[in-house]
Design a protein that fits this description.
Elements lengths: L2 H27 L1 H10 L5 H21 L3 H19 L10 H27 L6 H7 L8
Helix pairs in contact: 1-3, 2-3, 3-4, 4-5
C-alpha cells in the first residue's frame, strides 16, 4: 500500500469518527430532547435505547479513530445509522406532506447513505496501515530457543 493510500485511509477514518463523536456530544448536551425525540417515535424505554446507542457510537468512533477492531466498529455504526435513518428520516412516509418536509427528510437520508458508504468501505477494506489493527498483525512471532 502506498503512503498516499495510507494517509487517505487514515483521514477517512478520522472524518467518519468525527461525525459520530459530534453526535455523541450532541446527544449528551441535549439528553432530554434526544430522549423525547425517541419517545415521540414510539420507542419503548427511550432513555435506555439512547444510552445503548450512545455507547455503541462511542465504541465505534473510537475503533475507527484508532483503527482498532475497525471492521466491528464500522458494522456497529452501520446498524446504529440504519436505526436512526429508519426512525427519523423516513422520506417515503412524508411524500404527501409539505415538499420542504420531504426534501429535508430526503436530504438527511442521503447524507446517511453517504456515511454508510464510508463505513462499508472500512468494513470491506479494513483500517489500513496506519492503525492499531495493522500494528498488532505485523508483530513478529518470538523466536524460540532450541
Amino acid at each position: 500500500m502506498s503512503w498516499l493510500q495510507t494517509i487517505v485511509m487514515l483521514l477517512g477514518r478520522i472524518c467518519l469518527a468525527a461525525l459520530f463523536f459530534y453526535g455523541i456530544y450532541e446527544t449528551a448536551a441535549y439528553w432530554e430532547i434526544t430522549v423525547g425525540m425517541y419517545r415521540e417515535q414510539g420507542v419503548v424505554q427511550p432513555q435506555l435505547v439512547v444510552l445503548v446507542i450512545t455507547l455503541v457510537q462511542l465504541f465505534g468512533a473510537v475503533s475507527l479513530l484508532f483503527g482498532w477492531k475497525a471492521r466491528i466498529g464500522a458494522f456497529l455504526l452501520l446498524v446504529v445509522l440504519g436505526v436512526k435513518i429508519a426512525l427519523f428520516h423516513d422520506f417515503w412516509s412524508s411524500w404527501s406532506e409539505d415538499p420542504t418536509v420531504f426534501n429535508e427528510h430526503f436530504k438527511q437520508f442521503s447524507i446517511g447513505l453517504g456515511i454508510a458508504g464510508g463505513l462499508l468501505y472500512v468494513l470491506a477494506c479494513g483500517s489500513g496501515c496506519c492503525s492499531c489493527d495493522y500494528v498488532s498483525c505485523r508483530k513478529q512471532p518470538m523466536e524460540t530457543e532450541e
